[in-house]
Automatic annotation (TrEMBL):
The lineage of its organism: Bacteria, Bacillati, Actinomycetota, Actinomycetes, Bifidobacteriales. One of its GO terms (cellular component) is plasma membrane. GO terms for molecular function: cadmium ion transmembrane transporter activity; ferrous iron transmembrane transporter activity; zinc efflux antiporter activity. InterPro entries: Cation_efflux_TM, Cation_efflux_TMD_sf, CDF_Transporter. It comes from Bifidobacterium ramosum. Signal peptide: none annotated. Pfam families: Cation_efflux (PF01545). It is found in: Membrane. This is Cation transporter. Coiled coil: none annotated. The keyword Transmembrane helix applies.
Length: 301
């Protein structure tokens, strides 16, 4: 399907770009020992691994089998949930790690002076790359009407990655010009603690948002996008079977697959089954132009 091809192409581009960032980030981390750099390149490493999984899922979820006649689209929100959990775990680990460094300095009086080295140059390049990748993900997802749960997850994680890189770069610049003696000398030992805490506080809502949206998809929650709902309702009312009256429409989204339940009531003594099937197919055909993968059910309650 062209929609899945667009999704896979975007994911592959992200894998290549993020892999280069991981290699550069690891080199800078080992040169400087900056704790926040560990958080930065580890987060990007998760994007590489999850991107590989996402490419595989993108080619599998749309396939149907005898056991799964409707495909495996539920794997897409499961992927988003797993990535969000890994992201939250990494944020928590990094927070605990830098907290130990701050404790050693402020309580025990021990610590090592932070070396910024090439951090500033690396972070400037990383911010630019993350911004470009974020715009690219959004553009490709919009081309398929924001139907890709996996591209949405990658887009938000790239935004978090870019925010981390920006914050670390700011700290590196401050430390470069901060005198080695004075009231703020402690920042030369604990600067990565303060920036890591700030980054976690500012970015932790993103994985929680992905987790919430993916969970709603997985358990069958109603899709709440007003624009999509209005489009589906207007289209459904143009494809009503004879002797029926429109009541409401419920839309369910699982990954890139949409299920549309159109609730009807009978207004005549009989309903032509052939007309019912024809209206279902014509409605699916029109909805597919925008929602790509759609299954319509007429429900008489």
């Amino acid at each position: 399907m062209p929609q899945k091809r667009i999704e896979r192409q975007a994911l592959i581009v992200g894998i290549v770009v993020n892999a280069l960032q991981v290699a550069a980030g690891m080199a800078v981390f080992f040169m400087t020992g900056l704790k926040a750099m560990f958080l930065d390149f580890s987060f990007t490493a998760i994007s590489v691994l999850s991107g590989i999984v996402a490419v595989y899922l993108s080619s599998r979820t749309v396939r149907t089998t005898e056991r799964f006649p409707n495909g495996l689209f539920a794997l897409e929100p499961i992927y988003a949930i797993c990535k969000a959990i890994f992201t939250l775990s990494l944020l928590l680990y990094s927070l605990l790690d830098v907290s130990q460094v701050a404790y050693d300095y402020f309580v025990l009086g021990t610590g090592e002076r932070i070396e910024t080295g090439p951090v500033v140059i690396y972070e400037i390049l990383t911010v630019l790359v993350c911004f470009g990748l974020y715009v690219y993900y959004r553009r490709e997802n919009r081309a398929i009407r924001n139907s890709s749960t996996m591209l949405t997850a990658e887009c938000k994680s790239t935004l978090v990655d870019g925010a981390m890189s920006f914050g670390i770069g700011v700290v590196a610049v401050v430390l470069m010009f901060l005198p080695t003696s004075g009231p703020f000398d402690f920042l030369h030992f604990t600067g990565d603690f303060f920036i890591t805490v700030a980054l976690v506080a500012c970015t932790i809502k993103e994985p929680f948002g992905v987790l919430r949206d993916a969970f709603i998809e997985l358990v069958g929650g109603v899709h709440d996008d007003d624009e999509t709902n209005a489009f589906v309702e207007a289209t459904a009312q143009r494809h009503l079977p004879a002797n029926t009256e429109y009541e409401q429409t419920l839309i369910f989204k699982t990954g890139m697959n949409y299920t549309v339940d159109v609730y009807l009531s009978g207004t005549g003594e009989t309903i032509d089954v052939a007309d019912l099937v024809e209206c279902k197919r014509s409605l699916e055909k029109e909805l597919t132009r925008r929602l790509h993968i759609v299954d319509v059910d007429f429900v008489f309650d």
